[in-house]
Structures are given as C-alpha cells and as structure tokens.
Amino acid sequence: MKIDRIFLGTIALAAILLTSPSSSAQRGMGGSGGRGTGRGYQGLYDTTTVQTVSGEVIAVDSFNGARGIGAGIHAMLKSDSGSVSVHLGPSWYLDKQSAKIEKGDKITVTGSRIIFQGKSALVAAEVKKGDKTLSLRDKQGYPRWSRRQR
C-alpha cells in the first residue's frame, strides 16, 4: 500500500512538472523577458525593442524551429551597421503571401530586437520591399497567422 502511494505521488508530481511552464518558458526562449505566453515567438516579441533596419538580403533559408517553434523562414540582412538575422514567420504562411523575400532584395524590416539562441536577431513585424509591404505581426506583436491576433 505504501509503495502504491509513493508511486502515485511520483506520477502526480511528474504530471504537474510536465504541464507547468517554467519561469524561463514564461520569459521566452531567448530570455528576452518579452510579453507573451512563452510559446514560440510570442514570448520573444517585445514591443519595447522595436526598431527598423534597412539593407540587402544576403541569404534566405528555412529552419526547423526550436522548442515551440515550427519550421519557418529566416533571412540574413546586411545593413550599414552589420548583419542581422531576421525571423520572418512560418513557411506555410509566407508561401501564401504575394510579396516574396529573396537573396539580393533591398528591404526595410521593422521588428523586435531579441536574443535568440545566444545571438542578436530581429523578429519581423513588417517587411517593405519596393512598393510592397509584407505584414507579419500587429502592433502588439501578435502574428497575423495566429488566432490570438487582436
């Protein structure tokens, strides 16, 4: 009987630990302390770190997301102040948009400056390419592809 209670107690504790968000997950995966749920980029996008960067796209690739982030599209932008990694959004969403981001494009990106996997990056909210604008997030940082968008 005592062993059964210990076993059940251990199972219950494991279930609680597995379903409870840790403090690092609540802050976001990069530890940026941004607003959000800690899931994917929601926890990383911080409206207080929004900036605009212009430059030339030197690479575009897809990446398999880290914990909580699905496959997405990433661009490396070379600006006057150096290169910055730009996280655009999920592949399935970007594939449906009319504005495509390609190597050699001159673009202007507005987004949240974050630390992602130990490196500085920009989570894009809006990308301007010529006369086209690719809107990826609203003013509060919610993704256009999310049901939580406001």
Provide the fold topology.
Elements: H1 2-19, H2 23-27, E1 50-63, E2 72-79, E3 82-90, H3 91-94, E4 106-116, E5 119-129, E6 132-135
Parallel strand pairs: 3-5
Antiparallel strand pairs: 1-2, 1-4, 2-3, 4-5, 5-6
Strands, count: 6
What is the structural class?
alpha+beta
Question: Mind summarizing the main beta sheet?
Answer: 5 strands, mixed, barrel
Strand content: 35-45%
CATH class division: Mainly Beta
Description:
This protein has 150 residues and is an alpha+beta fold. It has one domain (1-150): OB fold (Dihydrolipoamide Acetyltransferase, E2P). 18% of the residues lie in helices and 38% in strands. It contains three helices and six strands, in the order ααβββαβββ. It has helices at 2-19, 23-27, 91-94; strands at 50-63, 72-79, 82-90, 106-116, 119-129, 132-135. It has a five-stranded mixed barrel with strand order 1-2-3-5-4. The N and C termini lie far apart (53 Å). The model is unreliable at 2-39 (pLDDT under 50).
List keywords for this structure.
150 residues; alpha+beta; OB fold (Dihydrolipoamide Acetyltransferase, E2P); 5-stranded mixed β-barrel; 6 strands
Short summary:
The chain has helices at residues 2-19, 23-27, 91-94, and strands at residues 50-63, 72-79, 82-90, 106-116, 119-129, 132-135. The protein is α+β, with helices and mostly antiparallel strands.
